[in-house]
Amino acid sequence: MSVSLLMLLLMPLICYASPVRNVSLGCLEDTNQFLSDLNAVEPKAYAIIMYDSLGKLGSNILGGNTDRLGSYTECLSAKVPSGKFQGQYCKLQVQQEGFDYSIGICVPDSCHDEDITMLAILGKKNTISFVSPFPSLFTLNSTVSVVSVARCVKGLFSIDAFAAICLFVSILFIVLPITGTVYAAAVRWEVKFEESPSDSLPSANYGSTSSNEKDKSESKEDIRWNHCKMNSVLPVVSDDVSFLGALDSTLKCFYLQKNLPTIWTVKSSKGVCSALNGIRVLSLVWIISGHTSQMAAWQNLDNVLEWKARVLKNPIYVYSWSGPFYLGVDTFFLISGWLSSRSLLNMVHHSEKGIILEVTMKYLCYRLARLQPLHMYSICLLVGLYSVISWGSVWEISKFHLDNCRRVWWSNLFLLNNFISVTESCNGWTWYLANDFQFYLTTPLVIFLYLRSKCGLIILGTTLFLASFTVTALLSSFFRLPVASPSDMRETSTVMYFTEYYTKPYSQILRNKVQASLGWLCAILAMLAVVFLAYTIEDSVNSYSPAAVIYQALHRTLWAAAIGWIIFACQEGCGGLANWVLSWDIWTLLAKISYACYLVHPMLIILYNGLQETLMQYSDINMLYLCFGHCLMTFIIGLALTVLVEKPFEGLKQSLTCQFHGKALL
């Protein structure tokens, strides 16, 4: 497009726009000045820069390279010498004869989204446009029908009070560990010089009292209280605790030299299957791999049609978006259910009163204290970080998540985000946490039946299975939910898959070598069937088969049963090579930071994609390196969040628990 053609396209907009009251006068005046400076005998430098940053038609259109993003940074760098306006990057979302694509344009920053959209509409009425239409060679027919909607950005997103609070909280949990570490080191130095060696305190028990003798007649409460005094990193305080005492206890919870060793220790908990750590970490890596491909395909590929043809129905890419990587979340559900049952059984055993309201509330409060601090901090981190980042040409997904968190963050607080605003939820991947806690609410009932009536437990399990099967089958049949690649381009089915099926709790639901071998064979066959049947079952909207309905209703249960067998076999000593691999010490270390990694990895992927100014070329090697990079950064940031946020809150919970028991015994 030449300068003369640009004048031909835009100047009539100025001439005919005066009757259009929805276009601001400032936008029209500045646009007129830009065009005049561009068409002058000696064009102004800023006007040339604005023109040069416009998106132009590229090659490989047949491969999906339809977006014309232009140059985001170049546009924002353009400034009129008088200082009246500067360049503002806008995208025209264009729909033309079956194509939906974006075009980057550079306009004066006095123009708003509505101004650019209205000018585009006015230009269409006068047979002109901001941009040339798509060549008729690539449209469905030779007629041209263009509908445009503009979205503009000036660099940083706006920072409101909510974003400022989130940014403060994000920074606070970086400052607190540094402060706590310095404070604890100062206390240690003071104790070292004020007390004799025989009276000095262990480095991990500042301010706590120890006892080398225990009365044999001590009750369980006394033993628990003494255990708190011996092992808590906090000083045990009396009823008249002061503000300074509370501050002292809090700062010591953020002591890095106490929190870091808890990560490096690779010993598994007593009585817990060590293979769980390997299963958890490998499932997490599978999810990260799937999200890497999924989120890149949303907006960042310049050969998306080639990617669809190569990846979506190819079993070789089972590790990626083409495969049912969401089954990694079902693995998390199984592990969480198994551990939660053990936890509640232990609490019931120690209470000596069975399942009572006090035990149940304590069990649920412990779970909330485990989930919510890091969960809510991740929301603050997203809002704070995304508000101060200078985004690139593909900012829409980042803005979408930021706006959602500003609007419905409270649904995450109450763990209802899998039912409220599902398609516009805050940190959409945290639907898993809401689902997980909703399952936790049912655990006391299951344990109650287990302790009282095995027959009742069997009846409940059968009823839940049949209910899950029926509901899932009906949803799949009615909405024609896709089997593989649930985020393919079938918009209605995709939305229904996530809102009505994927995020809901009602759809998730060895004595000799011969038996062990048979169990392993069944587990492996079930897992292979669940993964590879997704590539063969017909699930198109026009020919949705009964096999797809049955698959949707059963595949998650079969997957959970297969993973359950692996856990059981490894626990009973029938795991063999699988148990050896899944029990490596490295999995134990990574499993301790897996919760933080799950929360933060989509944020990092969206951040990386949103900072790009050009589209990326899909290739196997590019995606492989991208996945490795995302995994590495996820583990680094996950480690930091675990040490800076998760472990300190565990210390606070331990302190409050010990103080509660101490006051009860005084």
UniProtKB/TrEMBL annotation:
Signal sequence bounds: 1-17
Keyword presence, Ubl conjugation: no
Region annotated Disordered, chain positions: 197-220
Residue ranges of domain Nose resistant-to-fluoxetine protein N-terminal in the record: 24-143
Polar residues bias: start-end ranges: 198-207
TM segment ranges: 161-186, 316-339, 376-395, 407-423, 429-451, 458-479, 518-537, 558-581, 593-611, 623-645
Keywords from the named record: Membrane, Signal, Transmembrane, Transmembrane helix
GO molecular function annotation: acyltransferase activity, transferring groups other than amino-acyl groups
InterPro entries: Acyl_transf_3_dom, Nose-resist-to-fluoxetine_N, O2_lipid_transport_reg
PANTHER family: O-ACYLTRANSFERASE, O-ACYLTRANSFERASE LIKE PROTEIN
Protein name: Nose resistant-to-fluoxetine protein N-terminal domain-containing protein
Species of provenance: Gopherus evgoodei (Goodes thornscrub tortoise)
